[in-house]
Amino acid sequence: MKLEPLKAFLNEGVTEAGVDEAGRGCLAGPVVAAAVILKPDYRSNVLNDSKKLNEKTRNQLREEIIQNCLAWAVGIASVEEIDKINILNASFLAMHRAIAQLNMQPKHLLIDGNRFKPYEGIPHNCIIGGDGKYLSIAAASVLAKTTRDSLMKELHAEFPAYGWDVNKGYGTLQHRESIRLQGANIHHRKSFRLLPEQLSLFDNN
């Protein structure tokens, strides 16, 4: 299915940063956000919401985005932070960290979704489904997703029983079955419902 090209900007002539996160609905691993300021003349007929793209295309687009942006950065909120402040606030924290690490300050932020904690000094728009509407948000979704997928593959090498190289920490049947058989580990989110009935899932490692 051919996807429609995305819009290059919301406010023409304004330096905009697209911001999105990956891993919000996962049972394990951190939440990762990215912020991207694309070159004003960048256009793409391929770039779209990372969830609509296969892994090979996402990885190819990652390099293209990095080569065609003025600035990009990634922010991470840990499992411990997710459990302490909840996943919504942890997502905002990761987004703020990504914005703070940009090597140039945008004049406006385009946030994927319907909620955001304002970033001091920079106005923003929340755009539902924004990663399928604006290039900069789609670029952020690709960088966040590919970064997080890489992190989960690294964690898979440490804990191969959960299949994180494939499910990336999402609550697939295979992942949940592994939790049932193996128990949960330090990278699982204790504040999430990992199984229909949680018993002694967490070890002390």
Question: Could you describe the 3D structure shown?
Answer:
The chain is of the alpha/beta class. The protein has 6 helices and 5 strands, in the order ββαβααββααα. The chain has helices at residues 55-67, 79-85, 87-100, 135-158, 164-167, 173-182, and strands at 16-22, 31-38, 69-77, 108-112, 124-127. Strands 3-2-1-4-5 form a 5-stranded mixed β-sheet. A hairpin with an 8-residue loop joins β1 (16-22) and β2 (31-38). α1 (55-67) packs across α4 (135-158) and α2 (79-85) packs across α3 (87-100). The radius of gyration is 17 Å and the shape is globular. 42% of the residues are buried. Residues 198-205 have low confidence and may be disordered.
Helix content: 25-40%
Placed side by side, the strands forming the largest sheet appear as 3-2-1-4-5
Biggest sheet features: 5 strands, mixed
Query: What is the 3D shape?
Result: globular
Low-confidence stretches: 198-205
In percent, how much strand structure appears in the residues? 15-25%
| Mean model confidence by pLDDT | 94
User: Please, how many helices?
Assistant: 6
User: How many angstroms does the end-to-end distance come to?
Assistant: 46 Å
